[in-house]
Amino acid sequence: xNESWFEVDVAVxxxxxxxVVRLELADRKGRELPGFTAGAHIDVEVTADLTRQYSxxxxxxxxxxxxxxxxxxxxxxxxxxxxHDTIQVGHTIRIRAPRNHFAxxxxxxxxxxxxxxxxxxxxxxxxxxxxxxxxxxxxxYCVRTIARAAFVRRMAQSSFSAHVHLHLDDGPPEQxxxxxxxxxxxxxxAHVYVCGPAPFxxxxxxxxxxxxxxxxxxxxxxxxxxxxxxxxxxGSFEVQLRSTGxxxxxxxxxxxxxxLGETGVAVEVSCEQGVCGTCxxxxxxxxxxxxxxxxTDAEHLRNDRMTVCCSRSKSARLVLDL
Length: 322
Known about the structure:
Elements: E1 5-17, E2 20-26, E3 41-47, E4 50-55, E5 66-71, H1 79-85, E6 92-96, E7 111-116, H2 120-133, E8 137-143, H3 152-156, E9 164-168, H4 179-183, E10 191-196, H5 198-210, E11 218-222, E12 237-241, E13 247-250, H6 256-262, E14 280-285, E15 288-289, H7 297-302, E16 305-307, E17 312-313, E18 317-320
């Protein structure tokens, strides 16, 4: 995979729904872009010192454009505001080649897709891919109001429109999501994919687990952290670097990555909320206090990796592979 940055032009920027803009990115000379698989995202340099991840929502079979949808977050630290207010058609921006931590399982007998709000973006690429591959699936899209439902026109005009179920919080009762009916039986080799806000993901996954779905067939991707990174109850701890043996103290009100940066140890970060996995670092000794939503519960239990942007330590010292 190519980790280097490259430039693309903003070919299209349009309002997709209330608070959501759609950007189409293309090579300025019309050349093919690096390929991707459904569920992939790209790193976008939205300002000189700010990088954010956005899921690709067009068909993976397309090679001359990347399509992303960006929600304007009221609590944004600058990323979504820059996309909405600053980046315009004709601008050249830097991105990285697509990466995928949310890939479809090709062995699934059928696939059930759940999208909450802007979480529809990777789910939409999955629907495109499954439809073009002739594989059975259903898509359940849950959103507050029709005005906030992004890409509904595209889905209505698609070849897979019959597989799409739109669930509106303010709509009539008969169209609300019935999770038991949507999940159906767990007896076959079906897989569930869910993306959106943390409470929505938790509801879908817990409902599936209660109905006997095995963990290996449940897949999720968050769009925001579900826990606070630093609280008043946090204490200090030490971090030791494998390469030099240097020991650093992480105070209660600072993150590991902040302390590392102050001493000249560069760790690449992006979301700073434990969502994207960019800062994932190997743990050689000690017990992390995991506060991310990137790693699975099973990966948390292994305690061999941690997100140093938001996670802390349960032990007095962590030894990191840095």
